Structure formats: C-alpha cells, structure tokens
Amino acid sequence: MELRMPPVTDPTDVLYHPLNVEHTGNPEERLATARATCPVSTPIPRVHVVATNELVRDVLASPEKFANVGNFTITPDPPVVEKPMITSMDPPVHTEFRHFMRRWFSPLELRKQEARIEQIVSRLIEPLATGDEIEFVERIANTVPAWTVYAFVGLPEADWTDIQHWTDTIHNHLPHVPDDLPEQIAFFRYLDEQVAQRAAHGTPQHDDLIDGLVFAPGMTPAEVVSHIAQVLSAGTATTASLITNLFYELLHDRGNWERLVADPSLVTAAIEESLRHDAPLQYALRTVTEDTEIGGCPVAAGDRLVVSLQSANWDEEVWGPDAGDFDLGRGTPQQLLSFGVGIHTCLGAPLARLETKVVLRRFVAAFPGMRLAPGFERHAMHDPMLRRPETLDVVL
Amino acid sequence: VTTIEIDRTRCEGHGLCEGAAPSVYRLSDEGQVEALAVEIPPELVADAEAGARLCPVNALRVVAGL
Lengths: 396, 66
Known about the structure:
Number of strands of chain B: 4
Oligomer: heterodimer
Number of helices of chain A: 17
Strand content of chain A: 5-15%
Largest sheet of chain B: 2 strands, antiparallel
Order of helices and strands of chain A: HHEEHEHHHEHHHHHHHHEEEEHHHEE
Order of helices and strands of chain B: EHEEHE
Distance between the termini of chain A: 32 Å
Radius of gyration of chain B: 11 Å
Helix content of chain A: 40-55%
Shape of chain B: globular
Strand content of chain B: 15-25%
Largest sheet of chain A: 5 strands, mixed
Structural class of chain A: alpha+beta
Strand order of the largest sheet of chain A: 1-2-8-5-3
C-alpha cells in the first residue's frame, strides 16, 4: 500500500516517529515508554500516535469519530478522493461495498481456498531437500501469499511470475513510486487488459473476484482495476510478514520449533502468538472527524491518528509483564489487534491465517530439522509500516 | 441467568468465538454464529466471555441476568 509522507523531522526529542525506520524497525522500548508515559503523543504537528490497547480499541471501534478518509496519507487535512479504495472508505459507502465484497471474502468462502493453497505450497516445497540452505522470504514467505491471492482474484497462472515481478518492483519503490516506472506501467496495463477481456464477454464466465467486480452495477473498469490492485497489495506483503515473523521466532528460540515438531496441534497457537508478538502491519491510520479527546488529549478535526496495532498487542495491562515475549503457552485468549477491530477488520484475515497454517504444517512435517542458517542475524525491514526481518536464511 | 446477545448485522463469520469456546458457539453452515444454548451454565460463562472478547467485529455480548 502506498504511504504518502511529510519529511521526517528531527527525531531526537520524539518518542516514536511513525516514518523513521530507526524507530519503527526497533520499536519495543519506544512503544513501552509511550504506553507507560504518553499514550497519545504528537511526533508530527497534528499527527498523533495512539499506543495503549484500550485507546487503540476505542479509536478503531468509533468509525464515526475516527474515519478512514485520507488513507494512506499521513498528513493532516487529507484530500477527499472521489472513488476511494475500501481502506479509505467510510459508512455508508463502506458498509455497502464491504457487504458486496463478502460474497467472496466471507470466512466460509476463504476457507474453501485450502486445497489450492496446499497445491501452491506443494509446488514450492517439491524442489527442496533436507539440508538445503534457502532464503525463506523470497522462496516461500513472499510467494505463497502472492500466488494465493492471484489465484483467489482470478488471474491466470501463466502470468503469476510476471505479476510478482511487477508488484515486487513497485513495492521496492514505496512510498514514492515514480509515475513512469516501467513495471508499474506494465502492471496496470495488464490489469486493464484482464478487466477489458472479462467485460468483453458481456456476462460473468467465472465465479471469481474479477468477474464479480467487472459485472457489479455501476462499477467502472478503472474502479475495478483499483480494487484489484488494492486486494493484491493488501494480501501479499502483510501475509509474507506474518509467515516470516512466525518462522523467525520459532527457529530463533528453537525450543519452540521442537515443541511444534513434537506436537503439531500447537500450529494454531503459534500463529496467533506470532500475530500478537509481531503485528505484520504495525499501525493503521485514521482521520479525526470532529474536535474531541483521546485518553484526555485533545485532538482536532482533520488531525491524523497513527493507531499502533503493535503497541496494543504488547500492552502489559492486557498481556501481563511478559507481553514482550513470544510464548507458545499463553493462557486466556485476548483480542488481537493485528487485523484491526470493528467495521474495517481485515477482510482477508481468514485467508492469511489459512496460508500460514498450511505453510507451517507442511514445513514442520517435511523439515523437522529446520534451523536458522549459521551466522544469521535479524535485520528489521526498512519499511515504516511493515514489521518483519528483511531476510531469513534457513537450513532445511 | 447468563445469556448471549448476537448482533447478526455485525457477524461476518470469522469464527474466533467458536475456536475459543466450541462448547458455547458454533458457526452455521451459512457461516453465521449460533449460540449452542439459550442460557449459559455457570461453568461456561468464562468461555462465553472469552469467545465474545475475541470477536473482531464486536458482534457478541455476554449478558449476566438477575
């Protein structure tokens, strides 16, 4: 997703600056201080960071006061876009469009993708052998979500390699993608063609998202392309981060991996704990619609909120003093904020969980001796919104 | 008695309630949440609350009666 940003200002006296990758790459201590001393801080004029679990949930549960208009800009008084993507919509437009999208995105529908995900993982595992050293992000964690979402949307398998090359290249240029980037031009030309081909049939031929959008009443081809691009973007880098973070934590403290090998029924608990410990998307953004206050701090209409999903998941008030630890044996389940909460809850969450479950199950079964490559060190990804190691070298 | 209020306009069938408390909640074949009993026995109240707490779209409320 595209993040438009103002220049990073002097960060020395700022607790947590949402655009400073030094802060977002290693946010543990900064966010702990924010939760303890300043749950609503203002690192950029009129841009406030919300850090505690209670306040994050309050904000996300109040869409009338804290709207999605302006996503994903991070500047105050964001311009209103005429044809927004779902992540920038507010009720009643959002309500209607989300309801429409549920035809494809209901958890019941998404869980039907399991057989296809199994095929994708089989294809990626097949050439691998015990003892091989691989870079896990590129080979597995990026590719499984990418191919899964392409298949789900309805893009032909013959084109997957090209699509992945274009979108990876675009992503590497974020947040400022040049208008004339050849891969971006090729990607949107391709989507235009796909949409035009489907529309040329006159009636739906496939029970997939492309035909669903192409033949939705009142939807222009440009809107269809924009929604599809949004789904591809939302469903790939985020899930890649989930899978990467999970494997890193399990292999970094390898007792966790051994527990899973001994008891594969822990797979679901491991995924939920990874989602909590490492929020793939570290924060969401909202726009204040009316002068109000958050946790006693006044905020004004047009101000922007950086809602720290990660900090909410680390809140000691909810998770206890060991909230920062990765613990497969956490007791009473609490609400995770990684997929958000309320009316904008991630539509693809069941698909992300399913993909991750299939990958973990298959690797635990196929490569019980899997470990981090000798000398591997975790380096945080240089992306302000996403949390994961940049690379993950493993020995199978 | 303790009961469960389900807001069907909000439920999207995420199923986290069923995962946390399968003896209290289940998803119907249409993917909508159902409470397995009208009245929640005391020994299941904690489970019912855990399931409601996990709902990402705030569709569930456990109501303690008089």
